[in-house]
Amino acid sequence: MAEPLIPVTALGGTAPKVQGFGPLTLSERPDVALASLAPLRAGQLPDLPLPGPKDLAEAGGLWSFRTTAEAWMILAEGRAEEDFAARIAALAPGCAVTEQTDGWAMIEVTGEAAALERLLEKLVNLDPALLAPGHAARTALHHMGCFVLRPGAGQLWLLGMRSSAGSLWHAVAQAVQFQVVTLAERAQD
Amino acid sequence: MLIPHPLLGLRDAAEFTYLGDAALLNRPDPGAGEAAFCDYVYLRDNPAGVHRELWYHEQGDRSWLVVTRNTLTHEILGAELARDVKGGAA
């Protein structure tokens, strides 16, 4: 008899991985749907939130950020099991919309805003002001290209290649452990 | 070394890859003849001082920049989007 196919997350579990580190919690977010959007003609923009460089915008449950000139990524929580790109394409006539959900793995870091700021000081090689709430950036993290998004003061989203999800988790977990837990313990000694 | 990206702010040079002299933006007309293409493909100025060069923001928004850099001090004097420069004198 055929074995049933069991869906697994990017980190290989049957349920999303969650791990707490003092004031911060890391969680895998396989529920987040992604689609890239680019107008086929310059200036032919759909009625969707399409922010300028550096920004992360939200409207009606759709988040978006600019990935390159005249191209954006659209993101929605809890919609990974829909045909998300088709639904976005219906809202964006004259745009090239491509499904991205399974190409990426998202790791969410939540918790105290102050602890998150301490983490950001070392996690990515960017001025922390570029990652204030409502901002997005693409950068390299442990030699992996990543999108770093800050939807709220106590929330950080990291999008990395799905094939290196384990390396991304390891890099972030190590940074959180050192910046937030180990340094706090040393400060007490 | 930090490069002031015109859209994204100060970014570390490690996010970029370097191509070379920004004169590469000025490709000769296809009918300009072999001598012009020989110059374009092979000959570069190698100034000790201010130099305009192409950098690609590979670990960022994939834009091409024209960066003005002093080759003696590595001081970055400015950066523009190559798409804005193209057509002008590079």
From TrEMBL, chain A:
Name of protein = Sarcosine oxidase subunit gamma
Q: What is the lineage of its organism?
A: Bacteria, Pseudomonadati, Pseudomonadota, Alphaproteobacteria, Rhodobacterales
From TrEMBL, chain B:
Q: Which InterPro entries match?
A: SoxD, SoxD_sf
Coiled-coil zones: none
Listed name of the protein: Sarcosine oxidase subunit delta
What top-level branch of life does the organism fall under?
Bacteria
| Origin species | Pseudooceanicola albus
The biological processes this protein is annotated with in GO are: tetrahydrofolate metabolic process
GO MF, one example: sarcosine oxidase activity
